[in-house]
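chain below, 61 aa
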Amino acid sequence: MTKIFTQFVADEAGAGAVEYALVIVMAIAIVTAVSSTLKSQVTAFITQIGQKLNNAVNTIS
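prediction:
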């Protein structure tokens, strides 16, 4: 039993998979945060353009 436990502890094959999984999770979290921020900024920008166009049309009319 001790030999099996020692082999299990010494085996590093699973450690690489765990590291890759953590990197993937971190990448997904970063992409989600950035896309959320960009979405709000793009929405605000488009709203400003719409308001300026509306004001310009009202000024001409």
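The CA atoms of residues 51 and 57 lie 10 Å apart. The chain has a mean pLDDT of 84.
thats it, cya
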